[in-house]
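Hi support team,

I'm opening this ticket because the web form for multi-chain structure prediction keeps timing out on my end. I have pasted the exact lines I submitted so you can reproduce it. The total is 975 residues across two entries, so I didn't expect it to be a heavy job. Is there a limit I'm missing, or should I split the entries? Thanks in advance, R.K.
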Amino acid sequence: MSALLRWWESLLQAAEKRLPALTRHRQAEVLPISLHSRRVYILPTRFGLFFGLVVFTMVLGSLNFNNNPAMMFAFLVVAISMVSFHHTVGNLRGLTLQSIRAEPVFAGAPIRLKLSFREAEHRPRPGLVLELESAQSRIALPDGSDTEVEIEVPTTRRGWLRPGRFRLWTEYPFGIVWAWSYLHPERQFVVYPKPESNPPPLPFGNREDHGTRMRSPGEEWQGLREYRSSDPPRHIAWKQSAHADAMLVKEFADPISDAICLDWHELGALEHEARIARLSAWTLAAQAEGLSFRLRLPNQELGPGSGDEFSARCLTELALLP
Amino acid sequence: MNEIVHRRDILYLTWTMLLVVLAHVHWLPVTLTAAFLCLLVLKLTWTQWTDRPVPLIVRLGTMMLVLALLVWSVGSPVGREGGSALLICLQALKLLETRSRRDARILIGVAFFTSMIAFLFSQQILATVYALAVIAVLFGCLFALTPGFQSQQESLRAALKRTLPSAGKLALAALPLAGVCFLFFPRLSSPLWGTPWDARSGKTGISDRMRPGMISALWNDDTPVFRARFDGPVPPAPMRYWRGPVFWMFDGATWSGASRFSYESGTELSFDTGQTAAYEVQMEPTEQTWLFPLDVAVRSDANDLRWLVDGQVLARRPLIEPRRVKFTSALRYAFEPVLSATHRQSALGLPWRGNPKARALAATWREKHGQDGMAIANEALLFINASFEYTLEPPPLRGDQIDDFLFNTQQGFCEHFSSSFVFLMRAAGVPARVVTGYLGGVYNESGGYLLVRNSDAHAWAEIWIQGQGWVRIDPTGAVAPDRINRGSVDAAFPESQSWFERGWLGDLAMQSDWIAAKWRDLVIEFNAERQEQLLQPFGLDRMGRREMAIGLIALGTLALALGAWWSMRQYRRRSEQDRLALAYRRFQSRLGKRGLSIEPSEGPTQLLARAIAKWPERAEELRALINRYIACQYGHQQDADVRDQLIRQLKSF
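Hello R.K., no limit was hit. The queue was backed up. Here is the completed structure from your submission:
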């Protein structure tokens, strides 16, 4: 028995490798993906098979007794079912997946993918279901506009998350047949590494001077210099830059080029993943306190900088470490 | 995906089940209908009260109860009545159990089947229209059950308003395909399996026995029995005797037929060929074997009928479907001019005891007239004419029934008169028999046919006269000649007609019978033969099965495509902006056709300038039109009405 199952599995795998129709959507596709008739498959549901049996019996019975009104009844039921197949396919056809966005999350938390569907035909599409592996989301696109649909996918590892193949299916209108289509968008999302739960305090000892603090607006500044990419935007001198036709930055008495250094190599005692966890925890802490810091990784050095975008970049680099 | 169905949808389902069963109420025993309603109410109240499932004990208990009730009221759970009743009960029980989407869907699937079964009991147009309406409701239910479809707060009415129109539209779109299937699907010329039920005489009507009161009970029953279409002129009312069962044997209370004659065949019948009537009888399904030809039938176009020696014509199997038979009847005839000994013996048979007064009376007549049958008959008719009364509600007879009637009550209906008359004749030595059937019939102008109903049931007599054979004598004529001359019981008792049968309502009833007859003609009797001749008006000769199958597939595909396109047409409705742009483009091309050269890249203002240059007489109109267009398309004019108006003006320019 198990040998038979194993043989069946290997047969399926061979088929998947060879039959293009099954594997076409294994390849990721560039957005936007639009659904047309050839991409939409249709099959009867289990209820549809039962219904078909009932209707078949009705037709046979009415033919047998030559009962014409009963025949009209049975044929009308058949006809309505057949017309509804078109509606089931039509419920999917014409949809276009425009884009997918997601807010970055940490590994372990579910990522909320927002898929934006565009509706070219200005009609409501009720009863759609979006599936991704085990996650499911019921959607109903209201009358004729672009909609954003959310689906939550659990994450386990840091790094790139490729959502994989989505299945969009519907049983509308009667549940007799179901139509589905696969969407395999070529997008990937970064999942930040999970920060350590109780990290030790930030390594302030690296700083070269004390009392680095945020500059409050309106403080005295000494001079101007050219803008460098790591300068916080808050220090840009707008008026002067407009006059000078170049981006100028206010320079303060205390140089802020010295920042905390979060160093990979200093954490020799920890393992690879643990180091990443601690570094990301420190990054978050530094961001929370508004400190400026530098991140030194085995393959690159980031910083110095501060603020949300810089932290995001750091976390991304931490996530993408091999 | 198999989730618990919302409370509101259970409500929707319950009402739908009620609608489905309503079609069966006319034949279901009252106890079963009541049981079904109780189950529905139980389900409703339970659902309103709690979300828990109905406990197993309750379900098992009700199932036992309902099944017991079924067996008690219908008999066996097989056969047409039994099987259908069983299905309905199972459906109610399943409703009780329904909680999840899968349950609900299975319930609806079964409900479709139950709706169709209603056609086993009635094929009339009303039943058909009702069933088609039920289809829309059932599909509406399926619609509402699609996952992810509705919000939880919607009320039942809102859900109905949303689902029914869509289901109805789908039904309309499916009509062409259904019509094509109906017309072209190859019919079976003989059934694959036999009739599902024994045709028991559950229907009222003429029976194989006659007892006082049986025929008078039918005077109020307007159920059509058959319709007759005559090739020539319709015979006048006194000639409209339709022969049914003939009774030879009397046991003092009941008349019955003589089965020993069933195997005989070929009685001598000579008739005047100049006086015949040819007609077609369209029988309703009476579930009995009698056909009712006009007295006396001489031939027919059907070759599976049994012609009995006493003039009865029977079908081989009970009529469970409508049937058409063509007959030719003789209006002047000599039926069995030579009476065989067996027939004579049967025609004179009387119980050896009872009714002494009647026998004595008959004996006096025999003494007076000897062998002269006609004279004796006249005596009897005079006797009846003297002091008898024709009444719709004859008093019951006791003891020696003939004596009680003849000398005591002296009030009766046709069966009393004919029964006593034949008794007297036999007692006087004249061979006589009771003939029952129908007398009369209403002529339907619009349909051109004679409608005979159960209320026209009648009993009369035949006596055998030397040299003439069997002669019809109708003793009712001696007491209520209107019954014969005007052709219906209503004519004899004008006050018996209820108010809704008179005047224009009566005409309405006639019209609706005509509709029913037409429906029967076109739809119910559309069999294999008629199907083959379907395309004859188009010049195609009889279609074989292959042609029909090809026609079915080709036209079916076409009809399906048409239906699908129409029902999805609304999906391609362009947005408002597009319609306006389209109208403008068409306007532009129309100007181009009139001679204005089209520059594809120019705007409306330049178009206006050139158009005015070309047609200065319409400058004002054009200016107004173009300005309004600019306002709508590019400006702030958002009013939908203005837009529509503009589109119309653009189109009609």
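A quick check on our side: Residues 68-92 of chain A form the longest helix (25 residues). Let us know if the file doesn't open in your viewer.
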